[in-house]
Design goal:
Layout lengths: L1 H11 L3 H17 L7 H11 L12 E4 L9 E4 L4 H10 L3 E4 L16 H11 L3 E4 L2 H5 L4 H9 L2 E9 L3 E9 L3 H10 L13 E10 L14 E14 L3 H11 L7 E5 L4 E17 H11 L6 E2 L6 E8 L7 H6 L4 E4 L15 E4 L2 H5 L2 H12 L5 E3 L11
Parallel strand pairs: 2-3, 2-15, 3-4, 12-13, 13-14
Antiparallel strand pairs: 1-4, 5-10, 6-8, 6-9, 7-8, 10-12, 11-14
Helix pairs in contact: 8-9
Length: 401
């Protein structure tokens, strides 16, 4: 850098304008991009586009836990659980943002005195100006979320959601002059409408005759005040996740030519095939039950794999759920999976399924350990200039002898 500066001043004497322009363009502008302020709020907003908070389960407390998000990000540490050691690690790396999978705060607290681990973590994070953020069941339920990452590690193909979210979709309908139908339709797609499975830009369109009479004080796009007007219109029908309702309405109104555009919203009973709990997919080559479990043990570095009795079936179709996923056992059986792998299965839940499916419990922490990689892949792609650290600390509270 010093050589460049000396060269710049030397050459400036000969050809000031050209050299000045070249120096700024080739050296100073690229360097400037390294120092662009990046607020924590921007990072979290991008993460919530991938794993929206409305997708979290009712008992959960995902999202911002502690801190001020308008601060400039100095780095992000990714982990499964927040502990005092994790916060110390963030401080050592110069990171003022910790993104965990499990929330530090599940329930409300009445005092912060340092009497337990949660309170001490809160005090330490605040003392060091560290923001704590959790992406939990919203990341589990998100399209391409935690269970999809497990499926990738195992090598499953044709992966789909095992239990799609219910009561999460709306049908959106609006009526547009035929001349503006393409503009409005495209705005709806950009706002998140029209995704069905692996298809996007889905809509149904019907042409018809719309009528209206503009009253005094209005500014109609077409027609005359006080006279009944007929307009050739297109009825656009499409589908949206319910949590995007207001964004879609705003997008429609921003490009719709009518002063008072008409629209309808209908709740749907359809399952949302892109989002939900667990996944199911297939192996390229079937494996024996024992070979499959030994491979799972190696991939997830599991100290002890618990399973029900072998029945001699070959493993081809695999159902998965990160964390405590035993509630999905009936869904895995309905999907005709040969095996169901999850983090936690209670003793009595192992009974009665020997002839239906192989059950495998690999540990809560072990099943979700690759969540850090999932978050890293997204954040590093969105913010290549952001310093991102994967924790080196194993926060699994369970030990094995």
């Amino acid at each position: 850098m010093l050589i460049l500066v000396f060269y710049f001043f030397y050459m400036t004497k000969k050809n000031k304008n050209k050299i000045l322009i070249s120096f700024i363009y080739f050296y100073l502008l690229p360097l400037q991009s390294l120092y662009i302020e990046m607020k924590i709020s921007k990072i979290l907003s991008a993460l919530e586009q991938f794993a929206p908070l409305p997708l979290q389960d009712g008992y959960d407390n995902a999202g911002l836990q502690v801190g001020l998000t308008e601060a400039e990000a100095t780095g992000a540490l990714l982990c499964l659980d927040v502990t005092e050691e994790i916060i110390d690690e963030a401080v050592a790396h110069g990171c003022n943002l910790i993104i965990s999978h499990h929330p530090l705060l599940f329930k409300g607290i009445k005092s912060v005195t340092g009497s337990n681990m949660v309170e001490r973590c809160l005090m330490k994070a605040i003392r060091h100006d560290i923001v704590l953020y959790a992406s939990h069941t919203n990341l589990d339920n998100a399209p391409q979320g935690v269970s999809f990452m497990m499926a990738t590690k195992i090598g499953l193909k044709a992966v789909r959601v095992l239990e799609p979210l219910g009561d999460s979709l709306l049908k959106f309908v609006t009526f547009v002059p035929a001349s503006h139908a393409d503009i409005v339709r495209n705005a709806l797609f950009v706002a998140g409408c029209g995704c069905i499975g692996n298809y996007d830009a889905c809509s149904y369109n019907i042409e018809g005759d719309g009528t209206f009479r503009a009253q005094d004080g209005t500014h109609p796009f077409c027609g005359t005040i006080g006279e009944l007007h007929h307009e050739h219109e297109v009825r656009i029908e499409t589908i949206i996740p319910a949590y995007k309702q207001q964004a879609v309405i705003d997008a429609m109104k921003s490009v719709h030519p009518y002063e008072e555009p008409a629209y309808d919203l209908y709740p749907l009973k359809n399952g949302w095939s892109q989002a939900g709990s667990g996944v199911v997919g297939e192996l390229d080559v079937p494996e024996s039950e024992e070979d499959f479990l030994y491979r799972i043990k190696d991939i997830f570095n599991v100290a002890c794999v618990r399973h029900n009795r072998f029945s001699g079936r070959m493993i081809k179709k695999v159902a998965l759920c990160g964390g405590a996923g035993a509630f999905l056992i009936p869904k895995a059986i309905l999907a005709k999976a040969d095996v169901f792998v999850t983090g936690e299965i209670k003793y009595h839940e192992f009974f009665g399924y020997e002839n239906d499916i192989l059950l495998s419990e690999i540990g809560h922490y072990e099943s979700e350990q690759f969540t850090k990689e999932l978050l890293y892949s997204k954040l590093s792609a969105w913010f290549p200039q952001l310093k991102i650290e994967l924790t080196k600390i194993n926060t699994n509270p369970i030990n094995y002898i």
